[in-house]
Each structure stands twice: as C-alpha cells, then as structure tokens.
Predict the structure.
Amino acid sequence: MPTVLRIDGFSFRIRTRDHGPPHVHVFHGGDEVVILLGDDFELPSIRDIRGMPLRQMRAALELVALNQEFLLDEWKKIYE
C-alpha cells in the first residue's frame, strides 16, 4: 500500500488492490481512518474508523479536504 502523502504525522495511503469508491487509508501512530475522497460535488467523508481518536480523525478529514484534488489524482493513477 503506497504512501502518497505525509503531513503532520499523518500517512495517506492508497491500496493498489482495493475497491471503489475512491478513498484513502490515513494512519497516525497505530490508528487508522478510511476517508472517502468525494468529488467536485461531494466533500470527503469518513467511511471507517479503526481506533483513531476524534481529534486526529477530524484533523485527517480536514487534511484530506485540503488535498482532495491531489489525492483523487493519485487514486486515478492507480485505478485508471
């Protein structure tokens, strides 16, 4: 699962053998949250929380929103 972005202790990864809709796995320490990337009309949203505390989860969601276009481009590189 390649890391496509690192910011503020968060690691954003896209699995190469996964499924749609476009999403990223965000890690901080040993915790993870899966965030749907959305599109031009839909903001990113949380799909699955795997132990990440609320404060880090909100920060991860904000970082995905700020980097939505880049992350969608990375998803497309892998799956299109």
Notes: The longest helix spans residues 54-66. The chain has two helices and five strands.
